[in-house]
């Protein structure tokens, strides 16, 4: 199975892919715009941060799986992949600890002005008075927006720093918050009003794009800190630039909108001129520990796909098909029985939306669940029941 790995990937895990029988093309320096010419012959495409466009997908007739070796799939044209029958998967949760660690690195760097302090020392300057000014974080209120795997890791670490934690997430309950040692906040605006530090851990979709806008930034306390290690598009960057340039708040960003697609490129965003902003190079997941964990998961996804056809962590399967009726056929596990059933369903003009066949112990009988676009006529059921001695029984259920 030809596999194109178009971003950095541990050598040991490339070897594991080869042991699975994959013919691996390792091109970590490939640019996103080069993928349409590189991917046509591959069955599996593995990327980390590179954009996978509709052009790449349309140019790859053999492509069956696009796997992001990281969390989220916002760099992949999922809609185009779905229309072409290409699975899209990722490796969620494997970078949670690494990202949580960076949150606190940014927080402490902002509070203690560590970059400026290091720069002064390297310039041969000693200024204890200047760099002794810090607020400290003990006893402050940390607002966590998004309580998934990363948000939970942040909350666990916040307690060690003596931070009071308030949290907002669409699915968070009072009981879940209490188990985490946090207070659930009903309205996201109240996080910005109440917290001394706000950290963002939401996925990017229509409801979270520019979730942090000018009005919410104005709700923040003077000298409050905003940390974003999720997606740059979650924040209205122009509004944030104004907020930090006027010295109302401080910010620590690992992500930007926009940011370079390549690992190394010129980057001169005006927001970087703000003294109250510290930034890193979208490296939240970039620890050796996290990358090995992500690579382990990527190999697991590919191995499962090769051996079973099942795609773990798949993001583009329909949550609900258009099926209206479900036909369950109990049958003897013999050659041609299912083919007989499928052929007569076709003749009846019904589309099969989903099918699952399970075999009983001993491999003498099976049960096949077939979800159909419409109601099977009585004549079809009669034909199936009487037309083959290997049909044990039929059950029909309306499901939509």
Written overview of the protein:
The strands form three sheets. The protein has a seven-stranded parallel sheet, sandwiched between helices. It is α/β, with parallel strands linked by helices and 400 residues long. 34% of the residues lie in helices and 20% in strands.
In a few lines, what is going on in this structure?
The protein has 400 residues and is an alpha/beta fold. Helix content is 34%, strand content 20%.
Q: What tags apply to this protein structure?
A:
seven-stranded parallel β-sheet; 400 residues; 15 helices; five-stranded parallel β-sheet; elongated; alpha/beta
What gross morphology would you assign?
elongated
Q: In angstroms, what separates the terminal alpha carbons?
A: 38 Å
* Rg over alpha carbons: 27 Å
Number of E-state strands: 16
What spatial order of strands do you see in the largest sheet?
8-7-6-9-10-11-12
Portion of residues in beta strands equals 15-25%
Q: Estimate percent helicity.
A: 25-40%
Query: Overall pLDDT, averaged?
Result: 95
């Amino acid at each position: 199975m030809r596999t194109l790995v178009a971003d950095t990937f541990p050598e040991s895990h490339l070897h594991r892919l080869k042991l699975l029988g994959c013919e691996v093309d390792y091109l970590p320096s490939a640019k996103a715009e080069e993928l349409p010419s590189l991917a046509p012959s591959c069955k599996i495409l593995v990327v980390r941060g590179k954009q996978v466009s509709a052009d790449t997908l349309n140019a790859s007739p053999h492509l069956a799986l696009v796997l992001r070796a990281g969390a989220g799939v916002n760099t992949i044209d999922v809609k185009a992949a779905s229309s072409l029958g290409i699975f899209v998967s990722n490796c969620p949760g494997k970078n949670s600890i690494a990202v949580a660690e960076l949150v606190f690195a940014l927080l402490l760097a902002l509070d203690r002005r560590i970059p400026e302090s290091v720069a002064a020392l390297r310039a041969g300057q000693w200024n204890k008075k200047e760099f002794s000014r810090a607020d400290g974080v003990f006893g402050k209120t940390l607002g966590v927006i998004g309580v998934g795997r990363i948000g939970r890791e942040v909350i666990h670490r916040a307690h060690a720093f003596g931070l009071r934690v308030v949290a907002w997430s669409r699915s968070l309950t009072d009981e879940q918050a209490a188990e985490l040692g946090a207070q659930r906040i009903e309205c996201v605006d109240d996080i910005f009003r109440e917290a001394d530090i706000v950290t963002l851990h939401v996925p990017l979709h229509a409801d979270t794009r520019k979730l942090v806008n000018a009005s919410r930034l104005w709700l923040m306390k003077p000298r409050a800190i905003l940390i974003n290690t999720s997606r740059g598009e979650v924040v209205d960057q122009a509004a944030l630039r104004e907020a930090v340039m006027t010295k109302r708040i401080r910010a620590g960003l690992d992500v930007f909108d926009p940011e370079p697609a390549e690992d190394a490129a010129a980057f001169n965003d005006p927001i970087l001129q703000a003294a109250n902003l510290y930034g890193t190079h979208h490296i939240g997941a970039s620890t050796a520990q996290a990358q090995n964990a992500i690579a382990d998961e990527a190999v697991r996804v590919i191995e499962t796909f090769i051996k079973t056809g099942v795609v773990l962590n798949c993001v583009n399967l329909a949550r609900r098909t258009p099926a209206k009726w479900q036909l369950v056929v109990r049958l003897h596990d013999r050659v041609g029985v299912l083919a007989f059933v499928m052929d007569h369903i076709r003749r009846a003009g019904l589309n099969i939306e989903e099918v699952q066949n399970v075999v009983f112990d001993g491999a003498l009988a099976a049960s096949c669940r077939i979800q159909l676009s419409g109601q099977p006529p009585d004549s079809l059921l009669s034909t199936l029941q009487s037309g083959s001695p290997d049909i044990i029984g039929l059950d029909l259920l309306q499901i939509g």
